[in-house]
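I had to read the description of the data format several times before I understood it. Each protein is reduced to its one-letter sequence and a matching series of backbone shape codes. The format is easy to grasp once an entry is in front of the reader. For illustration, here is how one protein appears when written out as sequence plus structure tokens:
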Amino acid sequence: MFHRNRLIGSVGLCVAVFAAGAAAQRRRGPPAHPPAAPPAQQIHVATIHAAEANNMLQRMRVWLFAPPAGVSAYGLASLGQGHRIWALLPGCRQPNPDDPRDPCPVGRVTIDTIEGAGTVQNGEPQNVTTSADSRRVQAFVVPPSVTTVRIRLLRPNNAVRYEVAIRTMDVPHLPEPAGHATPGGFEIDLSAYLSN
């Protein structure tokens, strides 16, 4: 009987201490400084040199160029200042049941900021010749404050066909396109690149 009374007394004492602590917590309110959140985990983006990326894109019939100084063709004039890039794309043809090739393997290219401040200006693809299924050139300007970019090749339905990340410090090492400046433009020598 004595042990039983001592057990009941101990349980009662624990309940009383717990209730007093809970009441004190209600009077104090929530802690003044909530616990700090763990630091955000840095995500490392693997990049390759722009020249290596260019070699890989050429397998999909896309070439990257650094336009010659002073040339503003294919929409560069409206994209502002920064690292300038041209992408030479394959043409897009009407589907032909007798031709097994993809009629439009690359609809467009996008270049987006991964690291750094600023937004890459993406132009629209423009035909190189007057032919409807001409090869196309798309212009981009990367602000100097952007340090890493992602290049994506998109199909006409915007599905990603390929993507790669490069450092913008490598962009000036891209080759200039074969061809020559014309009054108000630039004529790319398409014979220097794989035919469409």
